[in-house]
Design a protein that fits this description.
single chain; mainly alpha
Length: 210
């Protein structure tokens, strides 16, 4: 059980974090449609290699702040400010995306370039770091997460497996819901604004209770 729990947690949290249509999974799906499944898988491998690094850094950072309640509170205040600004930006100022043929995708042809495209786009996505910091600290408080080297490594591997699995599901089944994904991307600013707004409300309530 000690070996299975961190892997399962990593898979579940990763799947929950990237299951909605976003830049990485939609790009993987469009590469599959336009250039073949093999190159899409190579793109997904590039993306998950960065997710591995981001998740490991996030959990390692969470290990430090977990023992410092003052830092956690400071991060909550900073996060509240950042998410408030992002909510206003997404809802009122961000330009509406205009995808070409449903979704805009950078065109790079070689297998090597697909791997590095996955690396680049994943590196530009900072969501995994605060996400895994928050989730690991929260789970630790409820004694579901332990900051020891083996548990951390297995959790990170689970996150990689979960992320790649979601990418692969998009790659093999994108045709069935391509129109829905296009709708999501056209309205992604409102979705993101709604998500950051909810996070702001939750953070405010949590800080008021402390």
């Amino acid at each position: 059980m000690e070996l299975v729990l961190p892997v399962v947690l990593g898979i579940v949290l990763a799947a929950a974090g990237i299951s909605l249509p976003g830049l990485l999974n939609i790009t993987a799906a469009k590469i599959s449609l336009n250039e073949g499944r093999q190159r899409a898988v190579i793109f997904a491998l590039g993306a998950t290699s960065i997710i591995f690094v981001q998740t490991y850094i996030a959990v390692s950072f969470a290990k430090f702040i977990n023992s410092r309640p003052d830092i956690i509170y400071l991060l909550e205040e900073m996060g509240l400010g950042i998410f408030a600004v992002l909510t206003i930006y997404f809802l009122f100022f961000a330009k509406k995306p205009k995808p070409k043929n449903g979704v805009a995708v950078t065109s790079l042809k070689s297998r090597k370039s697909k791997f590095f495209l996955g690396v680049l786009l994943s590196a530009l996505n900072f969501f995994p770091v605060p996400y895994y910091v928050f989730m690991s600290v929260t789970l630790s408080k409820h004694e579901y997460f332990y900051f020891n080297p083996l548990f951390i490594f297995l959790f990170v591997m689970g996150a990689v497996i979960g992320s790649f699995s979601v990418f692969y599901l998009y790659i093999i089944s994108f045709k069935k819901f391509e129109h829905k994904a296009a709708f999501f991307l056209c309205n992604i600013n409102y979705f993101m604004g709604g998500i950051t707004g909810v996070v702001c409300i939750i953070t405010i309530i949590k800080m008021m209770r402390n």
